[in-house]
Amino acid sequence: MKRLLLASYGVGALPQVVDGDAAGLRLAFVPTAAGPDAEAKEWVRADRRQLEALGCEVSTLDLARTDASDVAAALGGVDGVFLSGGNSYLLLWHARRSGFAEHAVPLVERGELLYVGTSAGAMVAGPDLAPAANLDNRREVPELESSAGLGITPLTVLPHDNDPEARVLHDDIVAAHPDVRLRDGTAVLVRGDEAEVVDSPVVA
């Protein structure tokens, strides 16, 4: 059974995905959406701190600096992947270029790999970035030919709905697209074909 946690910001619901205890969970941490200086970004550092506070064993997998053979090897040694936030188009481009999409998606679909994403990492799991992602960010990735997402879930996640500007954008989007609007501190928990919105606070 496939398992996903798609959060706006805050991964406190992670134990619910793994039956109550995330301690010892091996996660490949993908900071790629945040760009070349990803590890210096506060939200990336915060995501890593939260996972470590939950007792997860975190190893970095930057898709901008790897190829298909490295991705396959990395995925073979973990229980799940964690995709942090930033530019969702940049993340999608590297997910396809590096072979991550080819290797990871079937494993997630078969329930062999847990998928956790915040913000951009949550958005790319859906059918398409176009309804929700900032189109200005797409200009940074001219190589990207399609905005089609990884398609692991039919849900279009709209993160940071507590932000006034984001909320106005989401008001326009929901008229035409299926969606899940997420405030920071909430997430979509997916088990198989079932999905529910749960509280997912920031872990101190």
Quick structural summary:
This protein has about 200 residues and is α/β, with parallel strands linked by helices.
Keywords, separated by commas or semicolons:
9 strands; 30% helix; seven-stranded mixed β-sheet; alpha/beta; 204 residues; globular; Rossmann fold
Distance between the termini: 30 Å
- Quaternary state, please? single chain
At the fourth level of CATH, the homologous superfamily is Class I glutamine amidotransferase (GATase) domain
- Beta-sheet strand percentage? 15-25%
Might you state the CATH topology name?
Rossmann fold
- The percentage helix is 25-40%
**Number of domains as seen in the coordinates:** 1
Radius of gyration: 15 Å
Q: Show unreliable segments.
A: none
CATH class: Alpha Beta
Biggest β-sheet: strands ordered side by side in the sheet? 3-2-4-5-1-8-9
Shape: globular
> Treating each run of at least 4 consecutive H or I residues as one helix, how many helices?
8
CATH-defined architecture: 3-Layer(aba) Sandwich
Query: SSE order, as H and E?
Result: EHEHEHEHHEHHEHEEE
Explain what the structure shows.
The longest helix is centred in the first third of the chain and has 12 residues, at 42-53. The protein has helices at 14-17, 42-53, 68-75, 88-97, 100-109, 120-123, 135-138, 164-173; strands at 3-7, 26-30, 57-60, 80-83, 114-118, 157-158, 180-181, 186-191, 194-199. Helix 8 links the parallel strand 6 and strand 7 (180-181). It contains eight helices and nine strands. The chain has one domain (3-199): Rossmann fold (3-Layer(aba) Sandwich), CATH 3.40.50. The strands form two sheets. Strands 3-2-4-5-1-8-9 form a seven-stranded mixed beta sheet, with helices on both faces. The protein has a two-stranded parallel ribbon with strand order 6-7. It has 204 residues and is of the alpha/beta class.
